[in-house]
Design goal:
The protein has 136 residues and is mainly alpha-helical. The chain has 4 helices and 2 strands; from the N terminus they run ααββαα. The chain starts with a helix and ends in a 13-residue tail after the last helix. The model has no long low-confidence stretch (mean pLDDT 87).
């Protein structure tokens, strides 16, 4: 396993564990439907990232899928959920305040970066090194 691939896989595994723990905190936080929705979203993201970080191939619908595509699906789900969460927070803040502008910046730029990285994972490295996303 190359050094860069090892770094990405460890990042996926660690990010998956952290996201699963965060989902658990939301479940413990209360039974509100919106809380359970966020917890479910975080659990899906965390599980897919953890599987991408720990398994070389993951069976999906009777077919083996390489870890980069599983990671790409997890990152894409995280980006889509982050946009939804960010937009929902914009409605609760006062327009043009410092907090509102920071939330706008995060809502626009972070999902864009995550979408780019998800595409890199899905394609197996267009701009990044191909060895990083090799499936053995």
């Amino acid at each position: 396993m190359s050094r860069l691939k090892d770094i990405v896989r460890r990042g996926f595994a660690g990010g998956g564990i952290a996201t699963l723990l965060l989902a658990g905190l939301f479940v413990l936080g209360g039974p509100a439907p919106s809380t359970l929705l966020v917890a479910g979203w975080l659990a899906i993201v965390g599980l897919s990232l953890f599987l991408a970080g720990t398994r070389e191939r993951v069976p999906v619908a009777g077919r083996l899928v390489g870890w980069p595509r599983v990671g790409a699906a997890g990152i894409a789900a995280f980006a889509i959920g982050a946009v939804g969460f960010g937009l929902s927070q914009l409605y609760t803040l006062e327009v043009a305040s410092g907090t509102w502008l920071l939330t706008v910046a995060i809502t626009v730029f972070v999902p864009g970066y995550l979408a780019w990285f998800a595409l890199e994972c899905w394609a197996g490295g267009r701009r990044l090194d191909d060895e990083m996303f090799a499936v053995e």
